[in-house]
Write a structure and sequence with these properties.
This protein is of the alpha+beta class. Helix content is about 20%, strand content about 55%.
C-alpha cells in the first residue's frame, strides 16, 4: 500500500508534465526569456507585418549598397575628367576655361604631366545603419571593398571596370532574427566630358550574393543565393566661384533589381527600387595638392516596394564632408564621411577611403 501511495503522485506529476503545451509543441525558452510557443503563435497572427518588415529591410539594404557604389565610382570619374580649376599662374596649362582660370590636371596626376592615361584605384567603406521603428527594428554593419582600373581614352572620355565585395551583418530585432549577406559585383563604367561645364557618366552592375537568414533566435533559418543588378546615369555641372572655390551640381537616376527566395515564407521575392538624386558639392583648394569639400543631396524613390500595412518613407537628405590629397607624383587619396537625414525611423553613417594611382 505504501508503494502505491508513492507511485500514484509520481504518475500524476508525469501526466501534468506531458500534457503541458510546451512539451507537446517541443518548444524551449529562447535567450530573451520569451516562450517560443507563445512567440510563434503571436508571430503567425502578425505574419503579414513580418513579411513587410523583411521587404522594408531588403529595400533599405539594397539602397545603401548601391548608393555607396555609385557615389564612389561617379566621384572617381568626375575627379579624372572634370575641369578642376586653379589660378592662371599654374604652369600646367592643359586648357583655357576663361580669362582668369586654367583647369589643372585631375587628382592623381602630377603638375605638368598630362600623359598618364591609366589608373588603378581601391576603396574601403564602412556603413552603420539602424531602423528604430518597432515593426521593422534592426541595426546593420556593412563593409565594402572595391578595386577598379580605368583608361582615359582622350582628355574627355574615360572607361573602366570595378570589382566589389560586400558583407552585411544585420540583427532584425522585429523577428528575433539575423541576416548575414556577402557577395561580389562586376561594375563597368564610362564617363564623357561634353564641354568645360558639363559631364556625363553611366555604370551598370551585376552581383552574385549569398544570404544566411534566421528568425526566432535561430529556430527557423535558411540559406539562399540571390542576384542583383543596377544601372545608374549621372549628369554633372561645374562652375568656378573664384580662384580657389569650385561648385559642382549633379542629377542622378539609379534603378536596382534584386531576386531572392524567401523559403521561410515559401515564396520568391523581387525587390525593385528606382531613385532620383540631385545635389551639390562645394570644394575649396587649400593649396595645389589639397582640396576640402562638403556636399548635400536629396533623394526621392520613384519606384519602391509598396506596403499594405507598414508606412514607407521615400525621400531623404544626405550630408557629407571630405578631403582630397595628391602626394608623391600620381598618387591621390580621398576620405569622406556622409550621413543620411530625414528618413523616418532610419539613421545611416558612412565613412570611406579611396586611393588612386595614375600612370
Amino acid at each position: 500500500m505504501n508503494k502505491i501511495k508513492l507511485v500514484l503522485p509520481t504518475i500524476l506529476m508525469l501526466l501534468v508534465f506531458v500534457s503541458s503545451p510546451s512539451v507537446l509543441m517541443g518548444t524551449t525558452t529562447v535567450d530573451s526569456g520569451v516562450n517560443d510557443s507563445k512567440f510563434i503563435m503571436k508571430n503567425k497572427i502578425t505574419m503579414p507585418i513580418e513579411e513587410e518588415a523583411i521587404r522594408t529591410t531588403n529595400t533599405q539594404n539594397i539602397r545603401i549598397v548601391v548608393s555607396t557604389t555609385t557615389d564612389v565610382i561617379s566621384s572617381r570619374i568626375s575627379e579624372i575628367i572634370a575641369p578642376n580649376y586653379t589660378p592662371a599662374t599654374n604652369t600646367s596649362k592643359v586648357g583655357l576655361i576663361n580669362s582668369d582660370y586654367w583647369f589643372k590636371p585631375p587628382m592623381g596626376l602630377s603638375a605638368g604631366d598630362d600623359t598618364a592615361k591609366y589608373g588603378v584605384w581601391s576603396n574601403l567603406s564602412l556603413t552603420l545603419s539602424e531602423n528604430d521603428k518597432k515593426e521593422t527594428e534592426s541595426d546593420a554593419t556593412l563593409g565594402m571593398g572595391i578595386i577598379g582600373a580605368d583608361y582615359q581614352i582622350s582628355p574627355k572620355i574615360l572607361a573602366g571596370v570595378a570589382l566589389s565585395y560586400e558583407n552585411n551583418d544585420q540583427d532584425t530585432t522585429f523577428n528575433l532574427g539575423h541576416i548575414d549577406q556577402d557577395g561580389i559585383s562586376l561594375i563597368p563604367y564610362f564617363g564623357f566630358l561634353f564641354n568645360d561645364m558639363i559631364s556625363f557618366d553611366v555604370m551598370g552592375s551585376y552581383s552574385w550574393l549569398n544570404i544566411d537568414q534566421d528568425r526566432l533566435n535561430g529556430i527557423e533559418n535558411q540559406s539562399f543565393d540571390s542576384k542583383r543588378w543596377f544601372i545608374s546615369a549621372n549628369v554633372n555641372g561645374y562652375y568656378s566661384i573664384n580662384e580657389t572655390t569650385n561648385l559642382t551640381a549633379f542629377a542622378e537616376y539609379t534603378f536596382r533589381n534584386e531576386d531572392h527566395e524567401q523559403k521561410i515564407f515559401n515564396k520568391n521575392e523581387t525587390t525593385e527600387l528606382g531613385t532620383i538624386t540631385v545635389g551639390t558639392e562645394i570644394g575649396r583648394l587649400i593649396n595645389a595638392n589639397f582640396e576640402a569639400y562638403a556636399n548635400l543631396a536629396y533623394s526621392y524613390d520613384t519606384t519602391y516596394e509598396k506596403m499594405d500595412i507598414l508606412s514607407y518613407d521615400r525621400d531623404a537628405f544626405t550630408l557629407g564632408t571630405g578631403a582630397r590629397l595628391t602626394v608623391i607624383n600620381n598618387l591621390s587619396f580621398d576620405f569622406n564621411l556622409t550621413t543620411e537625414l530625414g528618413r523616418e525611423d532610419q539613421d545611416q553613417l558612412t565613412g570611406m577611403l579611396n586611393i588612386r594611382y595614375a600612370f
